Amino acid sequence: MHDSRPLLDDSDFPKIYRKPLEILQVNLGYLCNQSCVHCHVNAGPKRTESMSPALIAQLLALMDATEINTLDLTGGAPEMHPQFRELVSAARRRGVKVIDRCNLTILEVAAYAGMAEFLAARQVQIIASLPCYLEENVDKQRGKGVFKDSIAALQRLNRLGYAQTDSLLQLNLVYNPQEPVLPPEQQGLEQAYKQHLYAEYGIRFNRLFAIANMPINRFGSQLISQGRFAAYLNLLRNNFRADNLSQLMCLNTISIDWQGDVYDCDFNQMLDMPITSDTRQRLRMSDLMPKNLTGKAIATAAHCYGCTAGQGSSCGGALAQPFQSPRGT
Fold this sequence. Notes:
alpha/beta, TIM Barrel, eight-stranded mixed beta sheet
């Protein structure tokens, strides 16, 4: 696989600085029941990386020692971590909101029977990958049969109360472009998703998050192989909008990997761009309890244009509304 990191380091991205910490995004490991071509984590069924019980205990201690209000769990498939249910339950007992970044198909795997019911009982917010509402496009990007299993999982979640009128159970979907282009305008695409999924499958959801693909790991390697990497990076840079800077997720979020190292965001984690101390030593999760990161410069490179191009892109979807079609798409 081609390494895109050397092509990203030479960057003129503006300097940005941390605000008070509110959200803890944790990658529990790279094990996943899928191997998607756009996956920036390179997750898959053969990955063995997994957060240790000792680090899970540190996560709970960190929540006790800070004013973190949200625990955002990622993977791989975070539900496949052996302590996933224990961690979620402990966070909810502390009054911490929990987000599960779910690939949907894991909810249809026999070994994880009851997972959807568990999530509903703990009022876990689900952010679920569904890169298109058409079967052919989803299976092309994520594997044969993924669309059917995803639809079955969404119907299961709806039956449990997710996305129903007056329900506290939030179900949001994620769209990723199939090609190296910026996502279309989020609001209009959301309406198209809602109309199609309800008309064809009776499925309801709350919001759609349109997220740009980052030129790193699998997607970055694919672009390099196709000779399209430079063009995509130019597309991101040419559509930069400064007003997106104040809304970036990295301002109030930190990302922790399965080994306990600390990063400004999940993408920096995949590029091995850690938050460092004043002595240039990488910070560990255990360093966060006495340390205030407010005002510290965020590590950036050229991939950061992916979050600030056009309507903007974050783990919570578009940053700017309304939005006109970007140049070059």
